[in-house]
Amino acid sequence: MKFYIATDHAGVVIKNDVIKMLDNKKCEVIDLGTNSTDRVNYTDFAHKLSEKVLSDSGSFGILICGTGIGMSLAANKHKGIRAALCHDAYTAQMARAHNNANILCFGQRVVGLGVINSMIDEWIKTDFEGGRHQERVELIEKL
Ligand code: RB5
Fold first, then answer.
1. pLDDT tens across 40-99, in order?
2. Does residue 69 have its Cβ closer than 6 Å to ligand 1?
3. Where do the structural domains in the chain lie, given as residue ranges?
4. pLDDT-above-90 percentage for the chain
């Protein structure tokens, strides 16, 4: 599984730990920054990562800011992006199973590394269920 990852200054402190987690799970990871705690706009990183995910079929994204809220709002402005703000293993599992989410968002100020690890595990092992959820995902695209 291939992931792009990006954060703002309020998500950068845990980025390398998340990259290590993905490495340990044999995932390919491409780091799109930021690389310091200097203030940046999360919109720039959400945009850069969303474009990568859209142009690289089958890839996923991870966006981290302070809360995960700004990143998810910005990423979801892109047609074809379904960015899910998750807080635990259950929301991560449902984001894949029911929403066919292609970007996982969370907040460095909200969740710890143990919870993040469990969210990534669910994300990796959960396929989109399709069926009745397929129509709903298509309806999202039409909005
Ligand atoms: C930065 O202080 C913070 O506002 C940002 O990382 C994010 O939480 C916004 O949604």
1. 999 999 999 999 999 999 999 999 999 999 999 999 999 999 999 999 999 999 999 999
2. yes
3. 2-142
4. 100
pLDDT score at 123: 98
pTM of the model: 0.98
Residues annotated catalytic, as ranges: 65, 98
* CA gap 10, 39 in Å, rounded: 8
Asked whether 66 lines ligand 1 (CB < 6 A), one says yes
Q: Could you tell me the sign of the dihedral formed by the alpha carbons of 85, 47, 126, 128, in that order?
A: positive
Q: Where are the alpha helices (DSSP H) in 76-142?
A: 89-97, 113-125, 132-142
Q: Atom 3 of ligand 1 has which residue's CA nearest to it?
A: 66
Q: From 3.50.70.10, 3.20.20.70, 3.40.1400.10, 2.120.10.30, which CATH number describes the 2-142 domain?
A: 3.40.1400.10
Q: How far is CA 18 from the centre of its chain?
A: 12
For residue 67, the ligand 1 atom closest to its alpha carbon is 8
Rounded to 5°, angle at Cα 62 from 98 and 110: 90
